[in-house]
Write a structure and sequence with these properties.
Layout lengths: L1 H13 L2 H16 L5 H35 L1
Helix pairs in contact: 2-3
């Protein structure tokens, strides 16, 4: 179980929210194009939902860290 926590932490450390938000913007722009096929739109939508969830989880973690740091002061 400790190995899983270590792996999760490494994955979290590699997560780049700025790149993820930029990718979400790209996805949004692609979905707004009229020439995007339904199949491509579904793939982009799925990617966007997964990426948005990762961003949400990451931001919740940052919020918890800030609360801990604020409580220590």
């Amino acid at each position: 179980m400790a190995a899983k926590k270590t792996a999760d932490k490494k994955t979290e450390e590699k997560f780049d929210i700025e790149k993820s938000l930029a990718r979400l913007e790209e996805i949004n722009n692609e979905l707004a194009k009229s020439g995007t096929t339904l199949s491509d739109s579904m793939k982009l939508y799925k990617e966007g939902v997964e990426l948005a969830e990762k961003c949400r989880v990451n931001l919740e973690g940052v919020e918890k860290e800030l609360q801990i740091l604020s409580a220590e002061e």
